[in-house]
Amino acid sequence: MTGKLTGVIPPVVTPLTEDRRLDVESFERVINRLITAGVNGLFVLGSTGEVAFCTDAMRAQVIDAAVRIVDGRVPLLAGVIDTQTARVLDHVTAAAAAGVDAVVATAPFYAVTHTPQIRRHFEILGDRAGIPVYAYDIPVCVHTKLDPDLLVDLGRSGAIAGVKDSSGDDIAFRRLCLKNRAAGEPLTLLTGHEFVVDGAYLSGAHGSVPGLANVDPDGYVRLHRAFLEGDWATVRGEQDRLAKLMEICLSAKGITGWGAGVGAFKTALMLQGVITTNQVPEPFDALTGADVEAVRTILAAVGPRALDPATR
């Protein structure tokens, strides 16, 4: 991978069979659909890709399948998320050997860490990875908010290539964009928030990593291209529609949180005929009944295309 990775880099879902094995055929359909839509890269084993629920064997299977399916058509990033540096380095080594183009890591978690340890963590990863490292800012999961000054310093030194921001902190992201610009933009900044990609672009983001792009990749690609062309009316129109579509993640009544969000993405993909089942990893259960119908209703109203009548 040469140059900055910008544009739309969806965090790819990990389709499962009913008995919770990797559904390779569905995975292939998801990836090929995303590439056909014109995305600029793919990110496997993120939060949407169920990295926290995967055994090491499952991680290896996902990465091996993704490398084979992508076949160099777009850059491929892999999540190497784990509790502490040594464990992350093991995942980095495996991912790099399998042929991914870059890795994505959070701050350490479980053991309490502070800024000096977080800095050292990313410095070690950057020094030993051999491929670009992206910092993943997701405090809701790791309970640490990455500091903008720290991130820019790590970018200047070359320890990290960019940041995937899923913090939900628009003020901190704006500060990061301003500091990155003042430093000559050493970092590629990517927003992980489906609802406000347009606002992130106005702040200074270079691209997006939206889980909803699994469901509607064309919409996010159109949004990004309109941004590059300075067509802000189209940017706003696409973002407004995508925000309405994102309501699928808020529509479930039988579950909340991660299971509702990723469960909705998988349910929408199942209804679109892209994946075979909407199964999710234990201890979660797939959406059923009224929750599936709620997703179907929103898809029909504001989704990328009308549902096949056979699936209604």
Automatic annotation (TrEMBL):
SMART domains: DHDPS (SM01130). Keywords: Lyase, Schiff base. InterPro entries: Aldolase_TIM, DapA-like, Schiff_base-form_aldolases_AS. It comes from the Bacteria. Gene3D superfamilies: Aldolase class I (3.20.20.70). Belongs to the DapA family. PANTHER family: N-ACETYLNEURAMINATE LYASE (PTHR42849:SF1). This is Dihydrodipicolinate synthase family protein. It comes from Mycolicibacterium mageritense (Mycobacterium mageritense).
